[in-house]
Amino acid sequence: MRLQSQLNAAFTTLLLIVMAITGYLIYSLILDMLIQDEQRQLRQKGDLLIEVLNEQYGNTSISNLEEFLQDQDLQLFIYDRNQNAVVSPLPKSVVAEFFRTNDFSDKNETLWEYKNDKYVTSRILIRPESTGLELILLTPLSDIESVQQNFIFRLLIVFLIGGAIATILSYIFTRKLVTPLSKLKKQLKKIEKRQFNSMERIHATGEIKEVEQSVFEMANELQRYINSQQTFFQNASHELKTPLMTIQGYAEGIRDKIFDANEEEKGLEVMVTEVKRLKKIINEMVLLAKLDSEPDVYNPEMLQLSVILEQVVDRALPIVNENGVELKHSMEGSPELYADGEKLLRALLNLTFNGIRHANEKVSLHIKQENKRILITVEDDGEGISENLIPQIFHRFVKGKGGETGLGLAIARAIIEQSGGRITVDRSQLGGAKFQIEFFEQHLER
Questions:
Q1: Three-state DSSP state, 366
Q2: What dihedral do alpha carbons 365, 369, 370, 373 form, nearest 10°?
Q3: Is residue 245 located within the same domain as residue 277?
Q4: Residue 374: DSSP 8-state
Q5: What are the phi and psi torsion angles at 378 (to 5°)?
Q6: CA distance 319 to 311
Q7: First CA to last CA across the chain, in angstroms?
Q8: Cα–Cα distance between 288 and 236 in angstroms, integer?
Q9: How far is Cα 222 from Cα 131, in angstroms, rounded to an integer?
Q10: Among 189, 198, 194, which residue's Cα sits nearest to residue 224?
Q11: CATH number, domain with residue 279
Q12: What HEC string does 378-411 produce?
């Protein structure tokens, strides 16, 4: 069953249940209300009769009441509690039957029986109380039940009309609710077939709009990922193909005795160099794949960043001396971080080595803690990163001028993000590139 049909069926069922319960409660309560209202009217009528009787006769003796009742066409009794006697304009046989089947002395009895009928009663005490007289007025219960049935009939018509309108509105609203979902389903089918360029936005509101927004963000991210994977394989094949072709060319030349002794020695050196370069590329590709797909390669622990900073400086010292640049490092406070020490050291070394390669004279490495976050900044005074390369600089095999494998920054980003941080790149006040790492409060301690 389609979602719209399920929603309509559920709403209609709920509506019928609510209407049935409401109708039952009203049906059971309306009779009591009508009886109470009828008793109130009978009391008013009785008070009026007693007032008229007093004005006409001046007193309310039983003889005067009997004389008065003979001229009235009313369903009432005059009950003498002292004599346990009844006076009524009704036929004597009817009065006798009422007296036989009902207890006139029971003041709490509001419904009397006469054959197969019932009557609503209302008792009015005739003053002074010493007379012991009560005026008892009657109304057939069937008259009240006819009013009840007429009311219920009209209520049923109202329920039917209201139910029909509610069902129509339910169909309209559920259709409005389900239509965007149906359209969203078609867009998901396009994502399944990777037809990203043909996707269309859907007009919706509320939570469906949020889902629609998430779906399109997911589609854009998926498209970006697929494109990056395609670029990765293209770049990887190119990066691996180049050293392999060099090795193959020298190997075939040596095998076929094309080179003389000097050229053969040079070829062997080139082959060894290319093998080392190829090994480095493969190792970094394997590491990057593990960082993306195997969270268990991370072993986080509480780290003193002062120790990590010293390790970075010690390992970078040979390259600093080789390139003739100055590495300035500083730290504010003694910040701690919950992360994998070996992986974090690798990320900072990649950033530092990258700065050293591109620096003219100096590289700066600074760590500080402020407002419950840790900031790590690596910047240099080199040429910097071109504006068109910044959005892709952390992608795999994306290399700036003088880059090596194009995987160092991608590895650094993967490690930092897995450690709960964020890395950005901008232009440094020194003139070159500025890499800034930011760790937030929830990763500062465990």
A1: strand
A2: 100
A3: yes
A4: E
A5: -125, 120
A6: 14
A7: 50
A8: 13
A9: 99
A10: 194
A11: 1.10.287.130
A12: EEECCCCCCCCCHHHCCCCCCCCCCCCCCCHHHH
**pTM for the predicted model, two decimal places:** 0.49
Q: What is the largest CA-CA distance in the chain?
A: 157
Residue 392 lies in a domain: yes
Cα–Cα distance measured from residue 316 to residue 290, given in angstroms and rounded to the nearest whole number: 25
Domain that holds residue 377: 299-443
Q: Which domain CATH number covers 18? A: 3.30.450
Residue 80 in domain: yes
Instruction: Kindly give the confidence (pLDDT) of every residue in the chain, 446 residues in length, as a single tens digit, with 9 standing for 90 and above.
Output: 566 677 777 878 888 888 888 888 887 788 888 888 888 888 888 788 777 766 665 555 555 666 666 555 667 888 888 878 787 777 888 888 888 888 888 888 888 888 888 888 888 887 777 777 888 888 888 888 888 888 888 888 888 888 888 888 887 877 777 777 788 888 888 888 888 778 888 877 777 788 888 888 888 888 877 776 676 666 666 667 777 888 888 888 888 888 787 878 888 888 888 888 788 777 777 777 777 666 667 788 888 888 988 988 888 888 888 888 888 888 888 888 888 888 888 888 888 888 888 888 888 999 988 877 889 999 988 888 877 777 777 776 666 665 666 677 888 888 888 888 888 888 888 888 889 999 876 555 55
Beta bridge partners of 367: 331, 376
Residue given tokens 């990320």 in the structure block:
347
How many domains is the chain built from? 3
CA pair distance 290, 347, nearest whole angstrom: 15
Tell me if 185 is assigned to some domain.
no
CA distance 81 to 77: 12
Q: Are residues 31 and 137 in the same domain?
A: yes
Question: Helix 408-418 and helix 341-358: axis angle, to 10°?
Answer: 140
Say whether both 91 and 52 belong to one domain: yes
Answer yes or no: do 246 and 307 share one domain: no
Residue with tokens 């070159």: 432
